[in-house]
Write a structure and sequence with these properties.
Largest interface: B-C, 64 and 58 residues
CATH class of the largest domain in chain B: Alpha Beta
Number of helices of chain B: 4
Order of helices and strands of chain B: EEHHHEEHEE
Shape of chain B: rod-shaped
Number of strands of chain B: 6
Order of helices and strands of chain A: HEEEHEEHEEHEHEEEHHHEHEH
Helix content of chain B: 40-55%
Largest sheet of chain B: 4 strands, antiparallel
Oligomer: heterotrimer
Number of domains of chain B: 2
Chains: A alpha/beta, B alpha+beta, C alpha+beta
Largest sheet of chain A: 5 strands, mixed
Strand order of the largest sheet of chain A: 3-2-1-4-8
Structural class of chain A: alpha/beta
Radius of gyration of chain B: 45 Å
Radius of gyration of chain A: 21 Å
Strand content of chain B: 25-35%
CATH superfamily of the largest domain in chain B: Ribosomal protein S6/Translation elongation factor EF1B
């Protein structure tokens, strides 16, 4: 009966995420599983709440969805509790979402905290970023999927062609002190990055760790210097992120080979919703010895897609 | 072929959607007046009519009831008053019984059936010729006087013959007995 | 299910819509209820009217019945009264007649009919009869005829025929 009713009713789907204390959102008007309207906004918190109120008044069937990017979430290739015990994951502190072949777990504390924070927005659905990859995936035999956004990086590895085997999340830390930068720092960093280009061997990637230390020490020295050029700040942050991303990917793969599987990865996919440099892609390719197919995805559309699926259930 | 409904502008004043509420108000008025005209008004009319009819009918009924009561009372009174006559007019004429009654005043010698006829459409008249012997006509007078106490309704009529014989009077008279059909 | 959390309840209608619908529904309901109430009253009234009408018909029949019975009783009463009066009159008549006979005269036979009277008797002298008995007879009856028959002992046997003609 509800299916019939839903045929006549318009639904409003709002997907949002937080970026630098600003709320980026996409509002879709859906009727009978067809998207009638799609529009994006960027608000601060007050504006967002007012906007949501007006949406609710306009249409009572309004669903608000977002993603939770806590690192305390992962994927297990089975729904059974015994597998969790096997992996040493404490069942008392987590919530498990069973998705037929595999399950996603998340820390209860992080979920509840996030839910409380999101309460003022009347959030209906909270999705795991792993699902974003799951929606866009293609080959699932010995494939590694990487999702890069402004706030986090997600790694999801499929082995047997059905369900994911390994998952990992990395949140970019926002450093307050880093807002004060210097021209010279820029120069130093770009120099160092050029150095990275010349590295061919995997072994020499170990240098990145050293590089990390170098950058950090240089940055510490720059406390007194003021720069007006904001673009430089962004570039610095971007470069820092890229380095951290590479590091994270490398560690994830290492972890996978050591603890999860003996099979070599054959395919690599990169999803991104922010600007990433070709250098990063080639760096990752060099790191992983895989051809990385990259694709820009619209996270907000993906979230709304998930939300639509939720409503239909 | 899908109809394109033009988007109705949403005017908000004092926090209330004016258009929507006006439309609802109009809907309310329409429904209210419709129900009033189609359902409520006819019901009230029919109710008033029926009520009037009821009360007029009730008056007629009450009148009829009192009339019946009166008539019943009248009948019962009349019946009670005339009970003796009513029962007397139902009784058959018993010759032996009459002889016993008559013997108080005279010696009955014969009762002859003379005639049976219908009297006044609703009564049967049986005529008898009675002969009796008595000593003095006074007994005859007494007999006639007490005939109204007899259990039948009897009429004494002509011819009446007194014949003196051997110191006695032979009496002959006609007796008519009346009974309901 | 993909989401960690379940969606909040989404009402089908906005609050003010619900309010209006409830309001309109309530008023409509009241009106319909009122009409139904009236209709039931009408039904019961009509039932009563039917009862009244049938009862009136019944009563009418009974009244006619009683009226007939009353008339009949009255008729019976009239009959009996007539008879009693007749008997009384008859007795008085006979008594008066017999009282008319003076002492000297002795009757042997007397036949009283409705319109005539036969007297057979014995009288010492004609005069006694003519003076004492004849005048009253003459006054009562329209026609009187007397026949005398002499007896051995000097008395007269008489035969009196008296006729009363009615003027109709």
């Amino acid at each position: 009966m509800f299916r019939l009713v839903k045929y006549f009713i318009k639904q409003t789907l709002i997907a949002f995420f937080v970026k630098n204390e600003k709320y980026i959102l996409q509002k879709q008007i859906v009727k009978n599983d067809k998207i009638l309207e799609k529009i994006e906004f960027e608000f601060n918190e007050e504006e967002f709440i007012i906007f949501l109120k007006s949406c609710f008044i306009e249409n009572t069937q309004t669903y608000v969805s977002t993603i939770i990017d806590t690192f305390n979430q992962g994927v297990v290739d089975s729904c059974s509790h015994s597998k969790y015990k096997e992996l040493g994951i404490n069942l008392d502190n987590i919530k498990i979402l069973c998705l037929k072949d595999y399950s996603i777990f998340i820390g209860l504390y992080e979920l509840n905290t996030f839910q409380k924070e999101m309460k003022k927005f009347n959030v209906d659905f909270i999705f795991s970023p792993y699902l974003l990859i799951d929606i866009h995936k293609s080959k699932t035999k010995n494939s590694i999927y990487i999702l890069i956004t402004d706030s986090f990086v997600v790694v999801l590895i499929y082995e047997d062609g059905i369900k994911p085997k390994y998952s990992n999340i990395y949140q970019f830390k926002i450093d307050e002190e880093n807002t004060l930068e210097n021209d010279s720092v820029d120069d130093t960093l770009s120099e160092d990055i050029e150095n990275i280009d010349l590295v061919d061997d995997i072994e020499e990637l170990d240098d990145i760790e050293d590089l990390d230390e170098d950058i950090e020490s240089s940055l510490d020295d720059m406390d007194e210097v003021n720069i007006d050029n904001n673009e430089n700040i962004d570039d610095i942050v971007e470069v820092k992120n890229e380095i951290e991303t590479l590091d994270f990917i490398k560690n994830s793969i290492k972890d996978y080979y050591e603890n999860y599987s003996d099979n070599f990865l054959e395919y690599g996919y990169l999803f991104y919703d922010t600007e990433i440099s070709n250098k990063l892609i080639s760096n990752i390719e060099n790191e992983t010895f895989l051809e990385i197919k990259s694709e820009k995805i619209d996270i907000l559309s993906a979230i709304n897609e998930l939300a639509l699926k939720e409503i239909d259930v | 072929m899908k109809l394109k409904i033009p988007r109705i502008p949403k005017i908000e004043m004092f926090g209330i959607d004016i258009i929507k509420n006006m439309l609802f108000f109009t809907l309310f008025v329409v429904i209210f007046l419709f129900l009033l005209a189609v359902i409520v008004a006819p019901s009230i009319k029919k109710f008033k009519e029926t009520k009037k009819e009821y009360f007029s009918s009730k008056i007629k009924y009450d009148k009829s009831e009192t009339e019946l009561e009166k008539k019943t009372y009248e009948y019962q009174k009349l019946y009670k008053e005339n009970k003796r006559i009513i029962f007397a007019l139902k009784r058959e004429f018993d010759k032996n019984n009459f002889k016993m009654f008559s013997d108080k005043y005279m010696k009955l010698t014969s009762i002859k059936d003379k005639n049976i006829s219908v009297y006044n459409k609703e009564f049967i008249k049986k005529t008898y010729i009675i002969t009796a012997k008595l000593n003095t006509p006074v007994n005859f007078y007494k007999f006639v006087d007490n005939s109204k106490n007899y259990k039948n309704i009897i009429k004494i009529y002509f011819p009446i013959v007194f014949k003196a014989k051997n110191g006695e009077i032979n009496l002959l008279y006609k007796l008519e007995h009346f009974k309901v059909k | 299910m993909y989401s960690f959390t379940k969606a909040r309840k989404k009402p089908l209608f906005a609050e003010d819509t619900k309010l209006w619908l409830i309001f309109i529904g309530a008023v409509s309901g009241l009106m319909i209820f009122f009409s139904l109430f009236l209709l039931t009253k009408i039904y019961f009234y009509q039932k009563d009217i039917k009862n009244f009408k049938s009862q009136i018909v019944q009563n009418r029949k009974q009244i006619i019945d009683f009226t007939q019975k009353i008339a009949f009783i009255k008729k019976e009463k009239q009959l009996v009264t007539e008879i009693e009066v007749n008997n009384e009159l008859l007795k008085d008549g006979v008594k008066n007649l017999l009282d008319l006979i003076p002492d000297p005269i002795t009757l042997t036979n007397i036949k009283i009919e409705k319109n005539y009277l036969y007297i057979y008797g014995v009288t010492p002298t004609k005069d006694v009869y003519n003076v004492l008995l004849l005048p009253p007879l003459k006054s009562i009856f329209t026609q009187t005829k007397t026949n005398f028959y002499q007896m051995d002992n000097g008395w007269y046997r008489f035969e009196s025929i008296n006729i009363l003609k009615e003027d109709k």
